[in-house]
Design goal:
alpha+beta; 9 helices; 2 domains; 6-stranded mixed beta sheet; single chain; OB fold (Dihydrolipoamide Acetyltransferase, E2P); 25% helix; binds adenosine-5'-diphosphate; Rossmann fold; 5-stranded antiparallel beta sheet
Length: 357
C-alpha cells in the first residue's frame, strides 16, 4: 500500500509561509495532480514529500510510516524533474542503471529491470547513446526510465513535460497516463498547466498562495468549482465573470436579464438586490441561429462584437457588454464581424454566482 497522507503540513522559509495547513489523503495507485499558478507552493509540497525539504509543521505518512525524518533514499519514491538531470558522460543504459548500482542491486537484476523499462518506454534502440545524442522527448523517456527501474511505490513528477514542444507534450501526456496504468503505482504530478492537470489526473489539487482551494476529480472541478479562483483557473478559455445585480431572481445588467435554471435559481434568492459575479463559461454561450441552446427571453445577452478569432471548428467571439468583456465560443461558421450587434444565448443551467469580494 502506498497511500500518501499529509496532515496539517506547513512550510516556512523565514517569514514566508510557502505552504499552509495542507491536508490531503492520496490513495494507493491514484494519479494526483497539484496545479496552480507559479509560486503557489506545488513544488515545495512535492519536495517535502520527496524529503528534499524539511517539513516545518505537520505529519507526512507514506504507507503507514511517518516519513518526516526519513532520508529521501529510504522513502520508496522516485522523482522525475523537468530538466531530466541525466549524466552527460553516461550512456542511456548506464544512466538508467546508476541508481540501482548505488544500491548494490545484483548485476543481472539491474540488466533485467533496465531492459524491461526500455521496452515499456520504447527506447531499447537508444541504450548505447549519450544524452546529447537524444531528442528532448527521448531524454524525457530516459528520465522516466531511471525512475521506473527503481520500482518505487510512489512517483513524484515536477513539471516533467515543460521543456518539450507542444506536440510532444501532448504525446508524452498520454504516455505517462498509460505508464501509470501499467505500473500500478501512486503518482503525484506537479504542473501549472490546467489542461495537463485535467487530462492526466484522477484527482486534482488546486492551490493558491500555499493554500488548497479544492481537491476533486477533473469533471467535478469543472462543473462545481468551489470559488471564483478555481472557476477561473480550470477551463480554457477561462470562465467569464460579469458584474450583475440580482433582481427578481435574475442576473441583470446592461444587455441582459438572465434567469438561472437548476439549483442556482434557489441559491440566488439569498443575493436578492446585491451585486455578484455572474460566471459563465465561453462554451456555454452560443449565437442566435448557430447554437443548440434553445432561445427564450431569459437567456439572451445583447452585446457588441469587438474581436473575432476563428479557430476552424469554433470561433472565439469577444464582445463588449457595457464596458465588460465576455468571450463566447460559437459555431465556426457564424458570420460575425467586429462592430456587429449580436444576441448571444446562454445555457441557463450552466451559470454560476460568486461573491463580489
Ligand atoms: P510553485 O512550485 O507552485 O511554483 P514553489 O513551491 O516553488 O511554487 O514556491 C512557493 C513559495 O515559496 C514561493 O513564494 C517561493 O518564492 C517560496 N520559496 C520556494 N523556495 C524557497 C526558498 N528556498 N527560500 C525562500 N522561499 C522559497
Amino acid at each position: 500500500m502506498a497511500d500518501v497522507i499529509l496532515e496539517k503540513v506547513y512550510k516556512r522559509y523565514g517569514k514566508v509561509t510557502a505552504v499552509t495547513d495542507f491536508n490531503l489523503h492520496i490513495h494507493d495507485r491514484e494519479f494526483m495532480v497539484f496545479v496552480g499558478p507559479s509560486g503557489c507552493g506545488k513544488s515545495t509540497t512535492l519536495r517535502m514529500i520527496a524529503g528534499l525539504e524539511d517539513i516545518s509543521d505537520g505529519t507526512l505518512r507514506i504507507g503507514d510510516r511517518v516519513m518526516n525524518d526519513v532520508p529521501p533514499k529510504d522513502r520508496d519514491i522516485a522523482m522525475v524533474f523537468q530538466n531530466y538531470a541525466l549524466y552527460p558522460h553516461m550512456n542511456v543504459y548506464e544512466n538508467m542503471a546508476f541508481g540501482l548500482r548505488l544500491r548494490k542491486t545484483p548485476k543481472a537484476e539491474i540488466d533485467k529491470r533496465v531492459r524491461e523499462a526500455a521496452k515499456i518506454l520504447q527506447i531499447e534502440h537508444l541504450l548505447d547513446r549519450k544524452p546529447k545524442e537524444l531528442s528532448g522527448g527521448q531524454r524525457q523517456r530516459v528520465a522516466l526510465g531511471r525512475a521506473i527501474v527503481r520500482e518505487p511505490k510512489v512517483f513524484l513528477m515536477d513539471e516533467p513535460l515543460s521543456n518539450l514542444d507542444a506536440k510532444l507534450r501532448v504525446e508524452m501526456r498520454s504516455q505517462i497516463s498509460k505508464l501509470h496504468r501499467r505500473l500500478g503505482a501512486t503518482v503525484i504530478y506537479v504542473t501549472h498547466d490546467q489542461v495537463e492537470a485535467m487530462t492526466m489526473g484522477t484527482r486534482i489539487v488546486v492551490m493558491r498562495d500555499g493554500v488548497i482551494q479544492q481537491v476533486d476529480t477533473p469533471l467535478n472541478l469543472y462543473d462545481n468549482p468551489k470559488n471564483k479562483f478555481v472557476a477561473g483557473f480550470i477551463g480554457s478559455p477561462s470562465m467569464n465573470f460579469v458584474t450583475a445585480t440580482v433582481q427578481g431572481g435574475r442576473f441583470t445588467g446592461q444587455g441582459f436579464a438572465i434567469l438561472p435554471a437548476g439549483g442556482l435559481a434557489q441559491s440566488l434568492r439569498g443575493y436578492e438586490g446585491k451585486q455578484v459575479w455572474m460566471g459563465i463559461r465561453p462554451e456555454h454561450i452560443g449565437m442566435k441561429g448557430y447554437t443548440a441552446i434553445p432561445e427564450d427571453a431569459t437567456n439572451v445577452i445583447r452585446a457588441t462584437v469587438e474581436v473575432v478569432e476563428p479557430l476552424g471548428a469554433q470561433t472565439d467571439v469577444i464582445v463588449d457588454l457595457g464596458g465588460q468583456t465576455l468571450i463566447a465560443k460559437v459555431d465556426g461558421h457564424a458570420p460575425v464581424r467586429p462592430g456587429d450587434q449580436v444576441e448571444l444565448l446562454v445555457d441557463r443551467s450552466r451559470l454560476y454566482a460568486f461573491d463580489m469580494q
